[in-house]
Amino acid sequence: MSISSQHKPLGKQVTSSLQMLSPIVELNVGGEMYTTTLSTLRKHPGSKLAEMFTGQPKLRTDSEGRFFIDRPGTYFKYILEYLRSNQVPTQCVRDVYREALFYDIEPLIKQLEDSPQIFGELVARKQFLARVPSYSENVELMIRIARAEAVASRRSSVIVCVVRTEEDAAKCQDALNGLDTDKKSVVKFGPWKASPGVSDLLDCIQMDVEAKGYKISFQPHVAEKGFRFKSCDFFYKFLFTWW
């Protein structure tokens, strides 16, 4: 065996080892370039980010030899800033929170969850919606109905019935039966046991539908045949605008 054939694999091993152990690391995160240190990336040993740079390299490299992470690069700067100086971001909080969850940086996750933006979403709004039976399924049903009625139309509408209590549900049952007889689709939300009211739930529905990319608005549903006088208070028309 020649000397050159002995040294070629050894050279590759040394190069790989030096690259792995180099204290300075160049990263390509979703097309954004960063330079940092291994100690910064490994600051929280239990995190997924630290795991990426512990032991054998677990990431691919780009054409320039930079480690590549296929995540949004825009928000990685906030992750790095936290690792470097323990500074919790006040901008793009929801996006940074999503990245912190991906990289599994537990201290940052907990601090972001205490921020007003995340606390309000996770503790207040999400906990409320968890008490509204079939909330997510009903939102998806609204979207399916609106899409089915959008053929050759600029707008389509969905009738929504919102009842906070069992008593309210009983009051509007005749109206629901009338709409069913007329073959009109109605999506019913409630009843629920939580302090937020009907207007709060309507805002949540609009917020969550818009978060999926749809343009919508809502208004009280105009009473039609089959509605009792007060039952129309429980019915709303959500208008989807397509173009």
From TrEMBL:
User: Which SMART domains does the annotation name?
Assistant: BTB
Q: Could you name the domain of life of the organism this protein comes from?
A: Eukaryota
Which Pfam families does the entry link to?
BTB_2, KCTD_C
**Location of the BTB domain:** 23-120
Stated name of the protein: KCD14 protein
What positions belong to coiled-coil segments?
A: none
Q: What is the lineage of its organism?
A: Eukaryota, Metazoa, Chordata, Craniata, Vertebrata
- Its source organism is Nothocercus julius
What's an example GO BP annotation here? protein homooligomerization
